[in-house]
Amino acid sequence: MLTPEPGIYAGTVRVDKPLAIDGRDQVTIDGGGKGTVVLLETGGATLRNLHLTNSGSSHNDLDLGVQVRGKFNVISDNRIDNALFGVDLQQAENNIVRRNHISSKPVDLGVRGDAIRLWYSFNNQVTDNIIRDARNTVVWYSRDNLIAYNGIGIRFINDWQGNVLTGNRFKGNATQVVVEGGKTANRNTWDGNYWDDYEGFHRNDDGVGDSPHAIQAFADRLWMDVPPAQFFAGSPMLEVIDFLARLAPNPNISPRA
User: Fold this and answer.
1) Does 224 fall in a domain?
2) 198-216 burial, b for 16+ CB within 10 Å, e for fewer?
3) Residue among 88, 69, 180, 177 nearest 126 (CA)
4) Cα-Cα-Cα-Cα dihedral of 54, 59, 62, 63, to 10°?
5) Residue 256: predicted pLDDT
């Protein structure tokens, strides 16, 4: 376990050995406004209780808080801010990204980066993260990931088609799927995903629900339009609104999987 002395350290920091680094909430790594703050190019490493800040601003170079290029790494309990992109996993497997506070740079939404990105990455766990002032979380060409206990499981910026989401587990997210503008996620391929709020039947014990999973949570649309309304999530008033939405569903806002 490496526990640096309290203070501010200059990035970029490259980790190419399976180290466990614990900042004990007293260590800041400052990228100086250039490049990526921490590069994880190993397996079995841990980054925890660190403040990672001030990445570069290049979309082409994918300037990040943390770039992960290995297996069995843990990125937990960090504060990642003023970073164009938050945490990026590319061709990375069996990593854990949990309980991080992630925000992008203070720029217009259209030029902010993604808080968490998975690209050709499998069997990862993305759980309990708090994301503010970032563009979205994206999952590309990835499967068998656990996406759990986040504010939003997956956010689509628009209703473009062609995404394929297979074999993932969506568990305990306040909102499982959001589509900006209130349009549909149904033009994507949803296959073999696990949803912990599935309310259909399972009569033949084959591990697959008998009917597609339909998300009918009108309250989620409400707090997207009026963000302070999220404070009342789970309240009797919003539960009644969701119940009425299920009685008279709008097919345009319901992803099925």
Assistant:
1) no
2) beeeeeeeeeebeeebbbb
3) 88
4) -10
5) 46
Which two structure tokens, joined as six digits, stand for 227? 């963000």
**Residues of the chain under the 50 pLDDT cut:** 251-256
Residue 182: the pLDDT is 60
3-class SS at 229? helix
Parent domain of 138: 7-150
Supply 47's token pair.
Answer: 């980054």
Q: What is the pLDDT of residue 143?
A: 79
Give a yes or no: residue 217 inside a domain.
no
Q: What is the pLDDT of residue 15?
A: 95
In a domain, 44, yes or no: yes
> What is the rounded CA–CA span in Å between residue 166 and residue 42?
27
Q: What is the pLDDT of residues 135-184, one digit of tens each?
A: 777 777 777 888 888 777 777 766 666 677 788 888 887 777 877 666 67
pLDDT at 185: 75
Does some domain include residue 178?
no
Backbone phi and psi for residue 170, each to the nearest 5 degrees, phi listed first: -110, 115
Q: What is the dihedral of CA 249, 251, 253, 255, to 10 degrees?
A: 110
What pLDDT score was predicted for residue 146? Answer: 86
Backbone angles phi, psi at 148, to 5 degrees: -145, 150
Domain total in the chain: 1
CA distance 97 to 88: 10
Cα distances from 189 to residues 6, 151, 183, 244, 254, in angstroms, run 48, 23, 16, 27, 13
**Could you tell me whether strands 85-90 and 74-76 are parallel, antiparallel, or unpaired per DSSP bridges?**
unpaired
**pLDDT at residue 254 in the model:** 46
- Angle between helix 218-225 and helix 236-247 axes, rounded to 10 deg: 120
